[in-house]
Amino acid sequence: MKDNFKLRHLDILANEDKSKADLSTLMVEILGYKNSFFGKTKWFVKNFMRMSEMVAEAQSITMDDVQFNEDFHIKRPSTINNISYVQMLNLQQATKTADDDGLSEHIAKVVSIATYDSNRATPYDLNGQVYAQYKKELLNEPLFDVLGLYNWIIEDLTKTSKEWEQLFFSVEVIDKDFQKHGGAGMSQFNVINTIKGICSDFNYNEKEAWMVSYYLVMMNNYSKAYSTWVQNNIKEAKEAEMLRNRQT
Question: Scanning 16, 109, 115, 187, which has its CA 20 to 30 A from the CA of 42?
Answer without folding.
Answer: 16
